[in-house]
Structure formats: C-alpha cells, structure tokens
Amino acid sequence: MKFETVDAYLASFPTDVQQTLRQIGSAIQEAVPEAEEVLSYQLPAFSYHGMLIYYSAYKDHYSISVPPPFSVFEVFKDKLAPYERSKTAVKFPANQAIPLELIKELASYKAKENEQKALSKKNKSKSKS
Q: Which residues belong to any copy of the YdhG-like domain (predicted)?
C-alpha cells in the first residue's frame, strides 16, 4: 500500500495503534515545535533543517529512526539500554508504555544536531563567497 499523507499512513492501523502513533508524533512536535511533519520513505517523519526523525508501527513494536549521523543513540545509550536497537533505529515493544519523554529528548538532541549542521553549511558557503 502506498501512502500519500501521514494521515493515510496512520489510518491504515487499528484505532489503538493510531492513538499511540499520534502520541509519538505529538511528543516529537512538542519537543521541536518548528519541525514540519512529512511523509518520507512512506513513513511519518519530521523535518527540521533536514530530516529529523521517523516513526512507525509494526506488529509487535513501534520504531523511532534517524538519518545519519547516529550519535543520538550513543549519547542516550544508557536510557535506550532496555530497548532493541539497530544502527539507525530503536524499537519500543507494543505491549509496554511508550517512553514519550525519552522520545522528546531524542528529538530535541537531533534538532540541535541538525541546527549545528545547517549553521556549519551556512558558514562554509559564506566563506566561499
């Protein structure tokens, strides 16, 4: 199934999963109010000075993933220790409470990282002119 909007993606799930996904999206938006919610790679995501964070649902878990660099997972490795992780994502079991405060922290950290990257690019382009 191909999705055209975030709402279409959310609507493809049962009501309880939709509610959890909306909570995750709201937590990210609260942490980074300037971020824009978008659909990217057929997943709900937020963009802020580039791609910020993706979120999704699967049969047994919810997932948060980030584009490179992946330093956010190293910085928060102690808080993320209870959860299964890959290089790009962390999985939150569907049968447990979703750690919304932790998700906010991840989003805030990644937003600051994106701001620094954008500022660095801006300064590099100024020095070339």
A: 18-107
Distance of CA 122 to the CA centre of its chain: 24
Rounded to 10°, the helix 15-31/100-128 angle is: 50
- How far is residue 17 from each of residues 25, 74, 104, measured CA to CA in Å? 12, 28, 19
The answer to whether the Cα torsion of 20, 44, 34, 105 is positive or negative is: positive
CA dist 109 and 122 (Å) reads: 20
> How many CB atoms are located within 10 Å of the residue 108 CB?
15
Cα of 29 vs its chain's centroid, Å:
10
In this prediction the pTM is 0.90
For the chain, domain boundaries: 6-124
DSSP-derived pairing of the beta strands 43-47 and 36-40: antiparallel
Predicted local distance difference test score (pLDDT) of residue 19: 98
CATH of region 6-124: 3.90.1150.200
